[in-house]
User: What shape does this take?
Amino acid sequence: MKHESNVKVIGYPQETVYAKIADLNNLAIIKERFNEPEVQEKMAGNIPADKIEQVKKTLSTLQADADSVSVEVDPVGRLAIHIIERDEPKCIKFGSLHSPVNFNLWVQLLPLTVNSCKMKVTVDADIPVFLVPVVGKPLKDGIEKIADMLASLPYE
Assistant: This one.
């Protein structure tokens, strides 16, 4: 089962965004900076107000190193992924480590202008046909949350 996020516009150059996302240690900074007013303001433009608390809860469980990251996701539990391929500055491909189903996740980046880029998150998950009605919508929502979070990060 393959799902794609909506395309997000990020107000930073493709190379800058790629460099941040390709080193997962940088995601720990998100957790630390989430409550800063300027970060909250940027997120408010990309994440609906009713979803901010969900993002905050998810970020509080984030653990990362250079090549892997894990978070607690309701109702699934702890999910962990690691980078399996880097195609600078266009794409970072992740594979599942700890997950109830095997999946791959791609973050694709394309230049829009000198100072901005477009991003799309794609997930391809091995979900049994009989579970698609149960997990399809939460999976799509989760992909959109990941894309919203990545689009709202401070990349400076």
